[in-house]
Structures are given as structure tokens and as C-alpha cells.
Amino acid sequence: MPKLSVENVGTFDVPAGKRLVLALEDEAKVDQLHACGGNARCTTCRVEFVSGEPDKMTEAEQKVLAARGLSGVRLSCQILCDGDMSVRAISRLAGSGRKDAGGKPTDDLQPQPVNWVAK
Asked: Domain with 17 in it: what CATH number?
């Protein structure tokens, strides 16, 4: 079972293959934003990796990060917890001014089909 460490929150066991956005909410109890419901459209689910960053990303993540000119961050909705990782949760509901975190993401990566590319 992979370990997820969230800076200033704690370390948690996470089921292998679980989406990071869901692990942040379910296991770490972080108020992680995901305004588009985890579909790689809005970039509100951003995290910064401290360690254990995956060396690949979905094509959808790559495209939306490039379109927004973002670097040094990843989309938690597009990452599977396949190994130990440590992150900073930088996109949280608290202080965002939003009424809620967004629709609950599905268990499977979206959008389908998922194509992997080098980070």
C-alpha cells in the first residue's frame, strides 16, 4: 500500500491505483479543490511534489498545464497513487472563495481514453 505524505497534514496509507485527488480527500481529509470534477479541465486540483513525483502524466494533464502556462505543479485528478509520494496541497477550498470543492471525481481517470506521456 503506497504512503501519501501531505505537508503539514500527515502521512497516510492509500490503496494502490487510487486517484491522488481522492486520496487527498478520503485518506488525508484535505479540502482539495476539483472544480471540474476531476476531468483535467480547470487546474484547480493542483499540487506540488516534494518527492515521489511520477515520471509520466496523462496527455490531458500535459495539454491543460501547457495551455495555462503552468509549470512546477501537477493535477491531482490525473495522478494515480502507485508509489510513495509527498505533496503540498496548494489548491484548497479554505480561502478560495468558492462555495464548494467541486463535483466528486470518479474512481477512474478522466477523460477517457487515458494516454500517458513523459513528464
From this structure: 3.10.20.30
pLDDT one-digit tens code per residue, 34-69 = 999 999 999 999 999 999 999 999 999 999 999 999
pTM: 0.95
Number of separate domains in the chain? 1
Q: Which residues contact 36 (CB under 8 A, 6 or more apart)?
A: 42, 44, 77, 102, 103
pLDDT tens-digit series, residues 3-37: 999 999 999 999 999 999 999 999 999 999 999 99
* 114 within domain boundaries: no
Domain region containing 14: 3-94
HSE-CB of 114 using CA atoms within 13 angstroms:
14
